[in-house]
Write the structure tokens for this entry.
Amino acid sequence: QVQLVESGGGQVQPGGSLRLSCVASGFTFSTTPMRWLRQAPGQGLEWIAGINTGAENTFYKDSVKGRFTISRDNAKNTLYLQMTELKPEDTAVYFCGYLHYRGQGTQVTVSS
């Protein structure tokens, strides 16, 4: 079955950086466009970044453009999200996913 396991979250000060990882199994990762989503406290789920199968094309929500970078390693079945210049409003649970599938998420807290 489809499994998506996120890791790399934690607490960081404003302006800091984190790198999230998502290990995928149970489907053909290399032929599947992937995305990162997040859910802030009391808010709905929002899409923040996407990447095509060969990583030639990436897409970002305006609020993270220029600060976050989505990437993938198809040989390792792994999706990444490099986050820099983190802000308190980036505090959320971060999920990787495709279609209606997503993992359990990893918590990112940006606070001084």
About this structure: The chain has a mean pLDDT of 97. The chain has no helices and eleven strands. The longest strand covers residues 18-25.
